[in-house]
Amino acid sequence: MSDLTKDLRLAIDTGEVSFGNKTVMRAISGNKAKMIVVAGKGKKEIVDDITHVCSVTGIRLVRFNGNSLELGAACGRPYSVNSLAVISEGNSGILNEEYS
User: Fold this and answer.
1) Number of domains the chain contains
2) pLDDT tens sequence across 7-63
3) With contact defined as beta carbons under 8 Å apart, do 7 and 93 qualify?
């Protein structure tokens, strides 16, 4: 089992990642997203919407163990991040790892 925070940072630095609920939904609907990460303690209605869309489309969903401020800090962002879409993994291998 790998560390999600390290893999996220590597994917952000070397790949393509979109931040924010609206851009995540656009990435899903445009078939660009390979994986979605949501804050485990994020806004419930938004997390529920993204979870539902991921289950319908078959896109992998990973819940970050923390709130949106902690997810933002893990991504190296000075703001809260409720959700993000991994479009290209870069050198991270994030798409092949298992997270609990």
Assistant:
1) 1
2) 999 999 999 999 999 999 999 999 999 999 999 886 788 889 999 999 999 999 999
3) yes
Note down the domain range covering 20. 4-88
Question: What phi, psi does 24 have (nearest 5°)?
Answer: -65, -45
**SS3 at position 39:** strand
What are the respective helix, strand and coil percentages of the chain, to the nearest 5? 45, 20, 35
At which residue do the structure tokens 């419930």 appear? Answer: 44
Q: Is residue 40 part of a domain?
A: yes
Confidence band of 1 (pLDDT split at 50, 70, 90)? very low
What residues contact 16, with CB distance under 8 A and at least 6 apart? 86, 87, 88, 90
We report the CATH number of the domain holding residue 80 as 3.30.1330.30
Specify if 94 maps to a domain: no
